[in-house]
Design a protein that fits this description.
Blueprint lengths: L1 H10 L7 E4 L6 H7 L5 E4 L2 E3 L9 E4 L4 E4 L5 E9 L2 E4 L5 E12 L6 E4 L4 E8 L2 E2 L6 E4 L4 E3 L2 E3 L8 E5 L3 E3 L2 E3 L6 E4 L5 E3 L2 E3 L9 E6 L9 E3 L1 E4 L4 E6 L3 H16 E3 L8 E2 L10 E2 L25 E5 L7 E7 L3 E9 L4 E10 L2 E7 L12 E9 L5 E7 L2
Parallel strand pairs: 1-2, 2-5, 3-6, 4-7, 5-8, 6-8, 7-9, 8-10, 8-11, 9-12, 10-13, 10-14, 12-15, 13-16, 14-17, 15-18, 16-19, 17-20, 18-21, 19-22, 20-23, 21-24, 23-25
Antiparallel strand pairs: 26-27, 28-29, 29-32, 30-31, 30-33, 33-34
């Protein structure tokens, strides 16, 4: 009887999740949120959404558990025009937001772009730029809950109080890139204990704030500090890790232990001039250096050749993910000069697999997970990139595990 009743509920009209299209079904994201129920998907078409188009900021998402999916951060923008906080999650909300650029957030309080208060949203494939908080958290402020922040790019946020500030809670921050933001990349306060995994932090303090990668403000009797797993930090002029306050010594010792255990690796950009690839064309985790590497909109690292080239140059890499080595398959249609290299997500060249003349035909090269100096590369996301003569370069994603 109970099973029959449950099935009846599932099959009842309105029980299925709905898709609300913006601007087709509702003109704004604000209007779509007003009618969305738990489980619904708000599908946002390409364009810029701001107060001028009718959005009411901040978007308050409280115990809604909906999905807001944009067409991609290169095509879909939520713009606060440097006057509004953009999104507030609260009251246990577990919504998902993806595929957007979140730009121009501003707040006199914490969380210029996004404020998370006792909620656990999932934020993925987002680009945060030009946020400024007069308190802390130019991109995100977290005050409780277990948010998941994955595969996001933070660049050009201009306050000095930290790009992400965690006051309370245990959020996961994974596969994110922080480049040229105003202050420290991550600020951890009180008893917060975020997990920082597979992230890249480059050039913090770009707008006059402290050039610190991870800044921990310790308090008496409470563990305040992140768990570190496979992170790369570079160009942190003041400090890679800084811990201040009571119990600072023991916390710093624990973080240094994580650093020695490959929780954190310090490296320098090869060319010293990395920058995001164009404001409109920016891709998650993609930076330009001596050899620019452009990723697709969701960071999967596939760059197709020109339209008149029917067959791709790069074939599969087997295995992928891989440990300890992968074999890269590629073709050379005509004898030419070939350059085959491995890059990290900063666009830095890690390893040259081949550079020179090559005969036509099918070829393979193996990458053993080491850089050009013979040092083991840290686990994470890499890209194999091939250039042949006048053909457009092609890139594909590799995942190295240890």
């Amino acid at each position: 009887m109970q099973l029959a009743f449950a099935l009846a509920l599932l099959l009842a009209p309105g029980a299925r999740a709905a898709t609300i299209r913006v601007p087709e079904d509702r003109s704004t994201i604000t209007a779509a949120l007003e009618v969305a129920a738990a489980g619904d998907v708000i599908s946002v078409a390409a364009g810029t959404y701001s107060a001028r188009t009718g959005e009411v900021f901040p978007l308050r998402i409280s115990n809604r558990n909906v999905t807001i999916a944009g067409e991609g951060p290169g095509r879909c923008t939520l713009d606060g025009a440097s006057s509004s906080q953009l999104i507030v999650f609260e009251s246990g909300d577990a919504s998902t937001v993806s595929g957007l650029t979140l730009r121009g957030g501003r707040s006199e309080q914490a969380g210029a772009t996004v404020l998370i208060r006792d909620a656990s949203p999932v934020l993925s494939h987002l680009r945060f730029s030009n946020g400024r908080s007069l308190a802390a958290g130019d991109a995100i402020a977290i005050d409780g809950g277990g948010a998941a922040i994955r595969n996001c790019l933070f660049t050009g946020n201009r306050g000095s109080g930290g790009t992400i500030v965690v006051e309370r809670g245990a959020p996961e921050i994974a596969l994110c890139t922080f480049h040229e933001n105003g202050g420290a990349a991550i600020v951890v306060r009180g008893g917060a204990s975020p997990i920082l995994r597979d992230c890249v932090i480059s050039r913090p303090g770009w707008d006059g704030g402290p050039s610190v990668g991870i800044f921990v403000e310790a308090v008496e009797g409470a563990w305040a500090g992140p768990s570190l797993e496979r992170n790369l930090l570079s160009d942190c002029v003041d400090d890679v890790l800084r811990v201040e306050g009571p119990s600072a010594g023991s916390i710093l010792a624990a973080l240094e232990g994580a650093r020695r255990g490959d929780g954190l690796r310090v490296g320098e950009p090869l060319d010293g001039d990395l920058r995001p690839v164009g404001d409109d064309a920016a891709r998650l985790g993609a930076f330009a250096g001596l050899d620019p590497l452009t990723l697709d909109e969701l960071g999967h690292g596939v760059t197709p050749g020109p339209e008149d080239d029917d067959d791709p140059l790069l074939g599969p890499s087997i295995p992928n993910p891989f440990r300890p080595a992968t074999t890269i398959h590629f073709q050379v249609p005509d004898p030419t000069v070939v350059d085959l290299g491995i890059y990290n997500i900063l666009g830095q060249r890690v390893r040259t697999l081949y550079a020179g003349e090559m005969s036509a035909g099918e070829h393979t090269r193996t990458w053993d997970g080491h850089d050009d100096l013979g040092v083991e590369a840290p686990p994470g996301i890499y890209f194999v990139r091939i250039t042949q003569g006048r053909r457009e370069p092609e890139s594909r994603r590799l995942v190295l595990i240890r």
